[in-house]
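Report of the visiting student (M.T.), summer placement. My assignment was to run the structure pipeline on a short list of targets and document each run. The first record concerns GAG-pre-integrase domain-containing protein.
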Amino acid sequence: DEWHRALGHLNYAAVRKLKTKNMVRGMKVNEQVSAHQCQAHIQPFPKESQRTYDKIGDMIYSDLWGKSHIRGIGGKSYFISFTD
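After the run finished, the structure tokens were exported:
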């Protein structure tokens, strides 16, 4: 299903809920699709990284958090982190 893939393989119950609550205008959902048809749920998740990095800056992970309902210093609503 297009929306299931577009939303990062969000579970089908949540995709259907978006549709039934009209949270996305013009959203079309294939009601015949089941979770068993998604290949993402059966792919093994690697226990370790298959890559190695030798130098600082070779790989950077980032994460964005927010929008927070509580404002931070200076009225900020988001937090971003970077890990090298």
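The chain has a mean pLDDT of 80. Residues 2-44+54-83 form one domain. I thank the supervising group for their guidance throughout the placement.
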